[in-house]
Amino acid sequence: MRINRITEHVDKKGTPDTMTNISTRTNAMRLIKAAVLIASAALMVGCDAVIDCFDNDGPVFSNTTLEPATLNQVYSHSIGASVKNELFDDRFDYDFTLLSGSLPPGITAVASGQRNLLITGTATELGTYTFVLNVFVDDGLNATDSNLCYRNRDREFQLVVKQDGA
Q1: pLDDT values of the chain reduced to their tens digit, one per residue, 166 residues
Q2: Any alpha helices (H) in the chain, and if so which ranges?
Q3: How do the domains of the chain map onto residue ranges?
Q4: CA–CA distance from 25 to each of 11, 14, 18, 39, 103 (Å)?
């Protein structure tokens, strides 16, 4: 006759294994593996490049909403950009592109200074106009030497043209 014994696995401290202890050790091993991968990446591409992606270095729009325009009245609103987590982001050239959608008739977008796009003109038609802008930054260096994780960012904007007094 065979007797089946249930045995407890005991760790080095004499504490029986439980599902919680096993799960905690599994999670700890995953964290250790992730740390090893990060360290390996840092050795291959440089520590700063890895940190740049962790803190999400790259261009961002400084404002995401536009004030409404009034029909047949002069409108002017600036959309700015900067490089997140970069103290010396004036060294970059900022290039704005309208990717999709359209501005209201009578309204145009023109570069204003190094890192601003001026939305200006006189809207001639009522409506809600949705468009996507892209900002691309370049300093003549490759992304790793520029201390960037990414070089461009897209953002959707909406410009409402309303009737005077509405």
Answers
A1: 444 444 445 555 555 555 455 556 667 677 776 655 555 544 444 445 555 565 567 888 988 799 999 999 999 999 999 988 777 778 888 999 999 999 999 999 999 888 999 999 999 999 999 999 999 988 777 655 666 777 889 999 999 999 987 6
A2: 19-45, 47-54
A3: 1-45, 58-162
A4: 11, 16, 11, 21, 56
Token pair recorded at residue 39: 């360290």
Query: Which homologous superfamily does the CATH classification assign to the domain defined by 58-162?
Result: Immunoglobulins (2.60.40.10)
CA distance 54 to 50: 6
In the three-class reduction of DSSP (H, G, I as helix; E, B as strand; rest coil), residue 94 is classed as strand
Note whether 160 and 68 are within 8 A (CB): yes
Q: How many CA atoms lie within 13 A of 95 on its CB side?
A: 8
Residues 6+ apart with CB under 8 A from 2: none
Six-digit token string for 157: 């904007």
